[in-house]
Design goal:
- GO terms for molecular function: transaminase activity.
- Its cofactor is pyridoxal 5'-phosphate.
- Pathway: Amino-acid biosynthesis; L-serine biosynthesis; L-serine from 3-phospho-D-glycerate: step 2/3.
- Helix content is about 35%, strand content about 15%.
- By secondary structure, the chain is of the alpha/beta class.
- The strands form four sheets. A seven-stranded mixed beta sheet has the order 2-10-9-8-5-3-4. The chain has a four-stranded antiparallel beta sheet with strand order 11-12-15-14, with no helix packed on it.
- Helix 4 (about 90-100) links the parallel strand 3 (about 85-90) and strand 4 (about 105-110).
- Helix 1 crosses helix 8.
- The longest helix has 20 residues, at about 255-270.
- The two termini are about 25 Å apart.
Length: about 350
């Protein structure tokens, strides 16, 4: 790949994807019947790899759906009885709240980009608490410590977590929430077109208690199929195959998280060494480990310079669109591409390499 792609999703795919696509074609995976034994074996193996590499508890269900966004609808219609409370500090958490509000009663709790999750402000009528763990629009994160506090203080409530930009890049404690969801085009290093949903036993019990079956993507329909290693819709079989092959090839989430942390340290050393590019998020405790949002007063010059070097940077988002740029810190991005970006940024700011 000649272009170094740091756009925060869709981003760079794993370099062995072309090899796996060829294998899928030669082995007939692309045309396999999704009710066949071959497909069910593939789905079973894929879920097994995800459990092992991402350390997902054995009693949690794993399901494949069309996208991360589809989870907004599933959670609202199949897991919410009275109301959902949405905690957000950026665009994607706000969009989740807005969509859920079309289907159920919602309570919205906005907090600042440099603030930690306000775990003490819980509405009594809310039976589902919705958290965007990694907010791609502004490069913030909710720590496992904050999620633990939310869990301990709200026994009996469903906790749903958006990990679209962190699943596969950050070690997550899945026992701290009940419905985790993501899509595959970010830390999982695949082409866009598929979502993943991870459900606790409590989430399953709640769905069974509510008994909602009015939609093709009702959670009970999804659960019945995933337990048979099938899907309720015609699935992205190639996407599942690619997920299986790429997860099979990884060294696991402990290794990946350590690798990404080292890159974050390198980025941090650079930011601290000059005054022309700065973090949007000043509170390191809530700074994302997989997406960086950086400010500069020389934005147009930076963008044109990066383009000349065949480097794709992410634009700022929402209120930070014109003042920031974003950099993906995803596992599929190669070390030599990070070195290329760092060389460009040092040249841009006049900082000498160490």
């Amino acid at each position: 790949m000649k272009v170094a792609n740091f756009y925060p999703g869709p981003s760079r795919v794993y370099s062995n994807i072309t090899e796996y696509i060829y294998e899928a074609y030669m082995d007939g995976i692309m045309s396999v019947n999704h009710r066949s034994e071959d497909f069910m074996n593939l789905m079973e193996l894929t879920k097994k790899e995800l459990r092992e590499k991402l350390q997902i508890p054995a009693d949690y269900e794993i399901a494949f759906i069309s996208s991360a966004t589809e989870n907004w609808e599933i959670i609202a219609q199949s897991l919410t009885q009275k109301a959902s409370q949405h905690f957000y500090n950026g665009a994607f958490g706000e969009k989740w709240a807005s969509y859920a509000g079309k289907l159920t009663s919602t309570i919205n709790t906005h907090f600042g980009i440099n603030e930690e999750l306000p775990t003490g402000d819980i509405a009594k009528k809310a039976d589902v608490l919705c958290v965007t763990q990694n907010e791609t629009s502004n490069a913030t994160q909710v720590s496992m410590k904050s999620l633990k506090m939310l869990r301990e203080e709200n026994v009996g409530k469903i906790i749903a977590v958006d990990v679209t930009s962190s699943l596969g890049g950050v070690k997550l404690d899945f026992t701290l929430a009940d419905a985790w969801y993501a899509s595959v085009q970010k830390c999982l290093g695949l082409p866009a077109g598929m979502g993943v949903m991870i459900l606790s036993p409590f989430a399953v019990q709640t769905a069974e208690k509510i008994g909602e079956r009015d939609h093709y993507n009702s959670l009970l329909n999804i659960l019945e199929n995933t337990r048979k290693n099938q899907t309720q819709y015609t699935p992205n079989v190639l996407g599942i195959y690619l997920l299986y092959k790429t997860q099979q090839a990884t060294k696991g989430i402990d290794y990946i998280e350590s690798k990404l942390e080292k890159r974050m340290e390198e980025y941090g050393s650079f930011v601290d060494s000059q005054d022309q590019i700065n973090y949007l998020i000043t509170n390191e405790k809530v700074r994302s480990r997989t997406v960086l949002a950086l400010e500069t007063s020389r934005m147009e010059e930076l963008k044109s310079g990066a383009k000349e070097q065949s480097i794709i940077l992410g634009n700022g988002y929402g209120p930070w669109k014109s003042s920031t740029f974003r950099v993906a810190n995803f596992p599929a991005i190669k070390n030599k591409e990070v070195e290329k970006l760092m060389e460009f940024l040092r040249s841009f700011t006049g900082v000498s390499a160490r």
